[in-house]
Amino acid sequence: MKLHEYQAKDLLEATGVRVLKGAVASDPAGIEAAIATLSPGGPWVVKAQVHAGGRGKAGGVKLAKTREDLREKARAILGMTLVSNQTGPQGVKVRKILLVEACDIAHEIYVSILMDRKEGRPLVVASAEGGMEIEELAATHPEKILKEHLDPLAGMQPHQARDLAYRLAPGEAPDSPVPAALAELLMGLSRAFFKYDASLVEVNPLIITPSKDVIALDAKVALEDNALFRHPELEALRDVAEENPKEVKAAEAGLNYIALDGNIGCLVNGAGLAMATMDLIKLHGGAPNNFLDVGGGANKDTMLAAFKLLLGDPQVKGILVNIFGGIVRCDLVAQGVIDAAKEVSLAVPMVVRLEGTNAEQGRALLATSGLPITPAAGFNEATLKIVEAVRGK
Ligand code: GDP
Ligand code: MN
Which ligand is nearest to the CA of 61? Predict the structure, then answer.
């Protein structure tokens, strides 16, 4: 689950990270209220709150010097469609903005903590040269990216934090407060990563001001969905408006669904079979529209919800149903297809492969339904048929 910057800053502040919080607005009245809470002097920064990075380069972060300028920029950014390298060409609508006092920057550092799945341990990725060009730096100067694994039980150790701090802010005077403050801030990021079961904590830029303050100027936190049950209070931070509407709908129906960008809708039971189905579609030159595991205990309602989701998706040009009935009964699946096709017209080709429990009854139901469904007698044949059916669409 991704969080907005302003939410991430609240969580980081609670684990001892120094942040500038500002005030959030989502409509013109909110802008006025937010401005009233800021220091009157300025300058300030207006920041789009969307679940995507690269806002600075996309015009979603703007400095304002006067109050009038602040109001104008806030109104311009709120409601704009922000297109960054992380949003896709269609962009995302800005529904919330953060207004915050600006601060002077002497130095920008990059730091993130994420899960290194290969090593099975959290990994700190950091660079003394942070800021908006970090992706380019990683590509052209990989030696400037520091990496440090964390112990999964103990978290960041003070000696690791000190070592990182000296490498991230080199050349500080012996009496500079920066290394100690930076080390403390890094410890706070680690505490946040562990406390909230985060999958990502990223601060870019982490700044050193001319007066030697160390502040997390930006904050990105993603929470591990599989651990959210341990943090019911964090569920309130979910912003469904920012999430893929198809995935939101699927989650409401209790479906295990991930949207992809192909045109073959997949309805499969079992995560392994679903993965294999997508692989085979790809192998035969097609592109899956989604991952969907209806699960072993799929009932009529979940089947209906699954078909409605796929049939209602204009991107879907064909549907492949691949069911191996173990616990789930093939006749129930077939009935789900028929019921859904009655509610949402079946305007695209559908190939169905049913095997296992009650497969015979299932196939008979489909054959007599009058629906334009192509049966397939095997997994390979089924994928070949659907790839062929959507070719050129
Ligand atoms: P991102 O592009 O989505 O990562 O958004 P950031 O919050 O990182 O902002 C982009 C850039 O705007 C930062 O790298 C800073 O250079 C600049 N910026 C953000 N806040 C301030 C601020 O308070 N003062 C100044 N001078 N620059 C800021
Ligand atoms: Mn940033």
Answer: 1
pTM: 0.82
SS3 assignment, position 388: helix
Q: Are residues 326 and 354 in the same domain?
A: yes
Nearest ligand 1 atom to alpha carbon 104: 26
The answer to whether residues 293 and 268 touch, using CB atoms and an 8 Å cutoff, is yes
Domain co-membership, 233 together with 172: yes
Helix (H, G, I), strand (E, B) or coil at 114: strand
My answer on whether 254 and 386 are in the same domain is: yes
Above 90 in pLDDT, residue 304? no
Q: Which domain holds residue 347?
A: 244-390
Residue 232 tokens, joined: 């019911």
Q: Which residues line ligand 1 (CB under 6 A)?
A: 45, 47, 53-56, 61, 102-103, 105, 131-132, 204-205, 217-218
If 0-12 CB within 10 Å is exposed, 13-18 middle and 19+ buried, where does residue 10 land? middle
The length of the chain is 393
Examine the domain organization and report whether 97 and 115 are in the same domain.
no
Is 23:33 a contact under the CB 8 Å cutoff? yes
Question: Strand, coil or helix: what is 143?
Answer: helix
Two structure tokens written together for 182:
């930076």
Q: Lowest-pLDDT range, 64-68, 239-243, 292-296?
A: 292-296
The residue type found at 101 is: E
Omega before 152 within 30 of 0, i.e. cis:
no
CATH number of domain containing 278 = 3.40.50.261
Whether residue 326 sits in one domain with residue 257: yes
Total structural domains within the chain: 3
Q: Alpha-carbon distance 218 to 207, whole Å?
A: 9
User: Residue 365's beta-bridge partner residues?
Assistant: none
- Among residues 176, 210, 242, which one ends one of the domains? 242
